[in-house]
Amino acid sequence: MIFRILFSLRFWIIITVIGLCVQTTGFILFGLQSINHITPLVFYSALWLVIIFLIRRRHTENTEKRKNYSLLCTSVFISLALAEIVLRIFSVVSTHTESGITGYYQSPYNLPDKGFWINKRSHDVSFNTPEFTFFRKLNSEGFSDREWNMEKMKNKTRILTLGDSFTEGDGAHEDSTWQRFLERKMNDTSVVIMNAGIRGSDPVFEYHLFENRLLKYQPHLVIVCINKSDIFDIAIRGGFERFRGNDVFFNEGPWWESIFAVSHVSRLIFRIGYDKNLLDKSKQWDYLYHSSLVIADAMNRFMTLAEHHSARVLFVFHPGPGELMADYFSMEPLARTAESKSLNVCNLFTYYREEGVSENINRYFWPRDAHHNAAGYSKMADGIWETICENKLPGWVSNPQQNSHE
Predict the structure, then answer these.
(1) CB 225 within 8 Å of CB 316
(2) What is the reported pLDDT for 4?
(3) Are 43 and 262 in contact (CB under 8 A)?
(4) What angle do CA 363, 366, 370 make, to 5 degrees?
(5) Do residues 33 and 106 make contact, with C-beta atoms less than 8 angstroms apart?
(6) I need a surface site. Which of 52, 76, 215, 321 has the fewest CB within 10 A?
(7) At CB < 8 A and 24+ separation, what contacts does 297-305 make?
(8) 85-115, pLDDT tens digit by residue?
């Protein structure tokens, strides 16, 4: 009886219609976030039923052909369903958000809150991956740091740090971010380092944050961290034109993104020509060039605004493990250009190679997640401290009174 029902076409029609109704409602209410492990199976089933219907219409009189084609079609779709299940179980082509942060597909082009990186965050942060779990309690400004009391900090050298997850400290305990290691190296209670890093941020968002929310802290030194992910973030989000009034707009995603989101099997095909950000692999150099122009523009704006407020800026260019293993740094041209303009630059790619990080990647980076671990953040602090000392930046000589805005 059970097998008769399972092999009944009417049963699959009913199940598929119910699934499509539920999924359509989810799409309307939650968009791509409504996609779950059942979603592709529902759509495979719907496509299978449509093809079976067409086969029956096409071969109404030839029973033998109808059976053979129907059997072939069914075999193909069973294989697709099994492949989908295997790909999902082993996370072969899962995105970063599906693997850990949210558990569901999150479009980089159509995020539910595009102002996440410039508005005050209200929920504490939990970094959860198969390799680690770390919790962050946000301060009253919405950053993963201690409270910033201006009254207590007014006679101290204030160092403001901006960047993405490497700056926020993804992959380590709150006392093992590079800012905390740097403080311990300075060993000076008259210096306070403020961690304003936000995972997924980029220099455009960071400048907006600095200009509109963080200038009130009158930092003596602003450290801006830049890495390869900023290239692709800007390719997706655009430059300063993303800000329109009080709203934030990103570039449009590819028309086939919904298929990519639903089907892991389809990702095997799409990833032949597109990367994990759905960007055309044949245009990587174009993305690098145009995004570098945007980052250079952001750097110039940082310099102009900081100088106007008697602050200094240090730009930190840091590599990922893949770049160290390949011995190629995507940000090298931008770092060299900045140095040629006499900007304060810390090139951690050069520093890491000199320190032998390339020969022992897993000692400093999480193997799967690719963020620094505590040892990596300690090494990052070493490189930044060396540059601060070489350039005699605020923090090297802790004397807030030397700056005119005190």
Answers:
(1) yes
(2) 59
(3) yes
(4) 120
(5) yes
(6) 76
(7) 297/239, 297/240, 298/203, 298/204, 298/206, 298/207, 298/240, 299/203, 299/224, 299/338, 299/343, 301/207, 301/211, 302/203, 302/207, 302/210, 302/222, 302/224, 303/343, 305/207, 305/210, 305/211, 305/215
(8) 999 999 899 987 887 655 688 899 988 888 9
Q: What is the pLDDT of residue 240?
A: 98
- The answer to whether 183 and 149 have CB atoms below 8 angstroms apart is no
The answer to whether 385 and 187 have CB atoms below 8 angstroms apart is no
Residue 385 dihedral angles phi and psi, to the nearest 5°: -60, -40
In this prediction, residue 167 carries a pLDDT of: 99
How far is it, in rounded angstroms, from Cα 267 to Cα 88? 11
pLDDT recorded at residue 124: 93
Give yes or no for a contact between 228 and 292, defined as CB atoms under 8 angstroms apart: no
Residue reference for tokens 């997706």: 236
- CA-CA distance, 132 to 147, in Å (whole number)? 25
Angle between helix axes 374-391 and 178-186 (nearest 10 degrees) is 50
pLDDT for 143 beyond 50: yes
Q: What is the pLDDT of residue 398?
A: 47
Which pTM value belongs to this model? Answer: 0.87
- Continuous H helices in 217-340: 228-237, 257-262, 264-270, 284-308, 321-326, 332-340
Cβ contact 398:220 at 8 Å: no
Q: Ranked by mean pLDDT, which of 30-34, 95-99, 145-149 comes out on top? A: 145-149
- The strand pair at 133-136 and 125-128 is best described as antiparallel
Instruction: Give the model's confidence band at 403: pLDDT under 50 very low, under 70 low, under 90 confident, else very high.
Output: very low
**For residue 326, what are its two tokens?**
């390949």
C-alpha–C-alpha distance, residues 213 and 117, integer Å:
11
**CA-to-CA distance for 385 and 380, rounded, in angstroms?**
9
- The answer to whether the CB of 220 falls within 8 A of the CB of 159 is yes
Q: Each residue of 236-280: pLDDT tens digit?
A: 999 999 999 889 999 999 999 999 999 999 999 999 999 989 999
Question: For 7-30, how does the pLDDT look when each residue is reduced to its tens digit (9 = 90+)?
Answer: 678 888 999 999 999 999 998 888
Q: Which helix (H) or strand (E) holds 226?
A: strand 221-226
**Type of residue numbered 391:** N
